[in-house]
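Hi team,

Filling in the usual template for the complex we talked about on Friday. All components are listed, including any nucleic acid strands or ligand strings, so the model treats them as one assembly.

SUBMITTER: L.P.
PURPOSE: interface mapping
COMPONENTS: two
RESIDUES: 289
SEQUENCES:
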Amino acid sequence: MITIFKNKNDIPQDMEYVEWNDIYFNQNTAAGLDDRAEKIIKIIDGAELISKYKICSKFNHIVLDVDRLSAGCKTVLNIVYNPDKVFCIKECGGNALEVLYGLASGNAYSDYALIPFEMNGVNVQTASYKKEIMDYEELKEWWCSDE
Amino acid sequence: MTSKPVIMDHFSAVHTSFVVDFQFTNNITILAGDSGTGKTASFLIIKECMALNPDIMCLNYLDFQKDIAGMIKAAKRKLIVIDNADVLLDDNIRKYIAVDDNNQYLIIGRNPKNLFATRENLFELISEERGEQTVFTIRNYI
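RESULT (copied from the run log):
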């Protein structure tokens, strides 16, 4: 399950934090896309990954570079392909959040609650603890608390 | 916050097989919704119009190093279109935007914090295929 940070100061010093998912994806993640990306791109953006750097868009079925993926899709792909880094998830829509919360691992940051209606468990991490939360309301309460 | 658009109540533009056709009912339009619906594509089409239309100012993550607050506060009689707003806009500039009646705003993002927004401000993008074109419109976010 993914790990969520709500305070940048809680992110361990040996983990890089990435705020601009578009830039990081275009400059780093895009070069490493493989079969794992296909399903994610299909679910979130409704596009087909037709070669390493090209997608067939659901709009007019035009072929585009992968830099035209949505910010939400890029965020999820960044998290999948870079488990040693923490990514800002503020640009994820509900459909991207649903995929994000279903990932086996990865690290996410937001200072306000971003929770899909359907969620399984997540880890939440502060400077002093890391714990598992399985419930929507409990996660929302953790996110909104000042601890 | 409910207020009439001060710059334009309608914007339309064509970019090859894509059409943006937005009807504005409020001075601050927050364009939210799922990822991959065409919000940034619409932004880029509007941004292209900025080259010819002096009433439009577009900002996105590429402007992160600029003085965003200064640029917005200096703007007069503009439709200010902001993509990546959830990361780009801090609390102070959000509060300024909320009460700015010199400019009109199209904010692409999901966080209405400090914009004093109500349901009247929240919209989502709708795409519709018409022949070989895709037309983007907006409607109130449910």
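MY TAKE: DSSP finds four helices and eight strands in chain B. The first strand of chain B starts at residue 10 and ends at 15.

Thanks, L.
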